[in-house]
């Protein structure tokens, strides 16, 4: 995360940010952080889906918005 913070703070060129971002992702994968990132992403999707359900958004729209399956969404209720 420190590398990403440094990139955001000191790099203004979008092309350079993209290159450093990809490099940071590769470093994370090599160090085993990929699984944690994926888990965090899933938790965020679940949280968003629950909020949308509380707003009575149709489940099909939530599926499209989050990429979660109908069975995953039903398990959140």
Structure, briefly:
The protein is an all-alpha fold. About 80% of the residues lie in helices and about 0% in strands.
Textual characterization of the structure:
Helix content is 81%, strand content 0%. It has helices at residues 2-10, 14-30, 34-54, 59-66, 70-76. Helix 1 runs antiparallel to helix 2 (14-30) and helix 3 (34-54) runs antiparallel to helix 4. The chain starts with a helix and ends with a helix. The model has no long low-confidence stretch (mean pLDDT 79).
Give the helices and strands, then pairings.
Blueprint: H1 2-10, H2 14-30, H3 34-54, H4 59-66, H5 70-76
Features:
81% helix, 5 helices, elongated, 0% strand, 77 residues, mainly alpha
- The shape, in one word, is elongated
C-alpha end-to-end distance: 33 Å
User: What profile does the largest beta sheet have?
Assistant: none
Cα-atom Rg, whole angstroms?
17 Å
Number of helices: 5
- Helix amount: over 70%
Strand content: under 5%
Seen as an oligomer or otherwise, the chain set is single chain
Sketch the topology as an H/E string, one letter per element.
HHHHH
Give the averaged pLDDT, no decimals: 79
Helix and strand content put the structural class at: mainly alpha
* Strands, count: 0
Unreliable residue stretches: none
């Amino acid at each position: 995360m420190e590398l990403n913070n440094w990139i955001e703070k000191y790099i203004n060129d979008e092309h350079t940010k993209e290159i450093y971002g990809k490099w940071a992702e590769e470093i994370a994968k090599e160090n085993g952080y990929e699984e944690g990132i994926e888990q965090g992403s899933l938790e965020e999707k679940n949280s968003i889906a629950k909020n949308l359900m509380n707003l009575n958004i149709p489940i099909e729209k939530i599926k499209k918005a989050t990429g979660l399956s109908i069975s995953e969404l039903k398990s959140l209720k």
